[in-house]
Amino acid sequence: MNPSPQSEPLRSRILKKGLLALGLLSMGLGVLGIFLPILPTVPLLLLAAACFARSSDKFYRWLLDHPRLGPLVNDYLDGEGIPLRAKISAIGLIWLSISLSALLLVPLPWVRVLLFAIAFGVTVYLLYLPTRQVG
User: Per-residue DSSP letters for 62-103?
Assistant: First the structure.
């Protein structure tokens, strides 16, 4: 028998609510990315799916079953990869945001190096993901 929401530890409930909020924000930005080329739609929808998978089965199912958004997420989950446009957008946005942050906002050199190392690692990860042919 599943425990009631009241019997969940407070920390777990706060984490679930935080993940749900992050998922909703990511999904909203992902939908905006359909219309604004600077926002990477697929990576934001994948983040939303990951957050929903850990916080709300209802929203997770809704996203995967959505007629427009679902195929973008399901193609990745099925191992078909993400579209080239999404890879390019994600990598460009990562480097733009991290470069601006590191060079204009972060005074500590070691933090700058860490930010660029993270950008490099995420870029390598994205490049190794399968690229789905859009046709």
Answer: HHHH-TTTHHHHHHHHTT--EEHHHHHHHHHHHHHHHHHIII
Classify burial at 98, counting beta carbons within 10 Å of its beta carbon; exposed 0-12, middle 13-18, buried 19 or more: buried
CB contact at 8 A, 85 and 132: no
Helix (H, G, I), strand (E, B) or coil at 41: helix
Asked if pLDDT for residue 3 goes beyond 60, the answer is no
Tell me the pLDDT band of 36, cut-offs 50, 70 and 90: confident
Count of other CB atoms within 10 angstroms of residue 62:
14
Report the share of the chain in percent with pLDDT over 70: 91
What whole-number distance in Å separates Cα of residue 49 and Cα of residue 83? 17
